[in-house]
Amino acid sequence: MYNKLGIIGGMGPLATVNLFKRIVFLTDAKKDQEHLEIIIDNNTSIPDRTSYILGKGENPKNELIKSAKTLEKAGAEYLVMPCNTAHYFYNDIAKEINIPLLNMIEETTNHVIEYYRSKKIGLLSTEGTSKSGVYDKYFNKHHINLYKLDKEKQRYVSKFIYDIKEGCEERSIYNFKNVLIELKKSDIEVLILGCTELSTAYDIYGFRGNFIDPLDIIAKKAIEYSGKKIRQNKLN
């Protein structure tokens, strides 16, 4: 049994807080002592993942590994990383530590296989997540089609994501909602919230549609991995 969870955070800080909140709300606990013990490294020095993948920025690999090692040294027994794009570096991180690093992309794929395999699935994400193929790797393995955004829609979604980070999402939410409308018209049946900022925005705005939320999935997996139970009728 794994009792102490470590969170590689700071990508962004709001998404890190959101994961922590979800784990607390979703844990079937009646007192403080029944919750998970959690260590968070809110490492805001991690360079932007998408910028690097697109060839425009610094490689975040070393800072990601640094966070993982810091958490392991602090006593964490397993780790999660609430950033979809950062999973491009998953293998680089995992091989440098001696504790499990749960894979949010793989767990989301397993969720799709169980509940949505026959559906037409679209991906809402950063351009880095889309172009790096972090979801394609797992979807292709199971022969599941994944529909990605065209250039214009991706630009609107990316703008909304970075505006959330800046705290100014109101200036781009209109175009983002229009993207959702257009995707629904194109017969996309379910959308992956493939950026943890979008998971946070969903909590705030309650977008209409059928969504798969990787942040929710990894929160539940983190609870189960510790041997604890998930509380029903919370954040479902």
UniProtKB/TrEMBL annotation:
- Listed GO molecular functions? amino-acid racemase activity
Q: Which residues form the signal peptide?
A: none
**Taxonomic source organism:** Thermohalobacter berrensis
The UniProt record lists the keyword Isomerase = yes
| Similarity section | Belongs to the aspartate/glutamate racemases family.
Write the record's keywords in alphabetical order, separated by commas.
Answer: Isomerase
Q: What is this protein called?
A: Aspartate racemase
SUPFAM superfamilies on file: Aspartate/glutamate racemase (SSF53681)
PROSITE patterns under this entry? ASP_GLU_RACEMASE_1 (PS00923)
Family matches, as Gene3D superfamilies: 3.40.50.1860
- Is Isomerase one of the keywords? yes
Top-rank taxon, per record: Bacteria
Q: Which Pfam families match?
A: Asp_Glu_race (PF01177)
